[in-house]
Amino acid sequence: MTMARCRHPRTPGGGPSLRLGWTLLAWGAAAALGFGRAAGTPQDPEQLFGTLETGSPVEALEASARLVGLYDDTMQPRLEKLLGARPLRALQLLGELPTPGSAKLLLGRLPGLLASPDPEVVRMAEVASGLRRLRGATGPLLERTGDKAALRALGRIWDRKAGDPALERADEIDRLSTLALVHRISMGAESSVESCEAMLRTMTGEELDDFVAKHAKDRFHARRFCDEAVRRKGFDPKKGARLHEAFLGNSDADLVGGILDSSPFELPPEAVRALLGDERKTSQGRTVGELARKRLGEK
Questions:
Q1: Which pTM value belongs to this model?
Q2: Angle at Cα 15 formed by Cα 9 and Cα 16, nearest 5°?
Q3: Which range marks the domain in which residue 88 is found?
Q4: Is 260 a domain residue?
Q5: CB 154 within 8 A of CB 182
Q6: Which of 105, 139, 145, 204 is most exposed by smallest CB count within 10 Å?
Q7: Which residues of the chain fall short of a pLDDT of 70?
């Protein structure tokens, strides 16, 4: 099977998350509307919900940003009404809210939202579930692993940092079920950056060590997707550094060269120094040894 050339994201974090994009848009909207003025902007939650329902996109962004700071679960009936009237705007808000009641509402409505004929409503429901890390959403999302948003949501829900304590038995069963499915997708013909990100996030530190011991030296199909996945925003840097260090032993010169040239993680100097005499050339015409010297700051 012919592999595409290694694609590195423009930044270690990849594309902006919904949370960041929503916040930046909200502040931009606020500036456009004179957010800093002392008077004239409604603070009443009912007015803000009304703006979310009927206002322009810019007005709705400002109203949502304000509601995040004001919301409590006594407002849930109003949120339910918004979800029925303007599901996309409600889901953007639900992805930001921290309250138990709003989480329960999203979980309760999730099957219906995932069955929506509007693909954007489906995507936003998957994204909001991931942003809220709703473990109860695991079952419905596992049925939608053909959707990249569902895969990313599963990775966020079951994200395990290196050294995290063990989960309770029921949660561990769900995590392992998720890992088994996304691992099968990632190591097969339908592999993608999203499936690899979900797989690597869901792994414990010990599981990642086992994975790289088995695969890091091989030209397996998903190797470049794995490289890109650990560069995405929010990925555990300890796990990312472990994978990149292990990939320095891969037989793919372009993969090794890309890591030496642009890895956002600190690579052990001794592992880089071991490549100084490597004469393999990358597709850009540079040897691995040259890139190792560059990484070490040597001429």
A1: 0.84
A2: 145
A3: 17-32+43-132
A4: no
A5: yes
A6: 139
A7: 1-42, 299
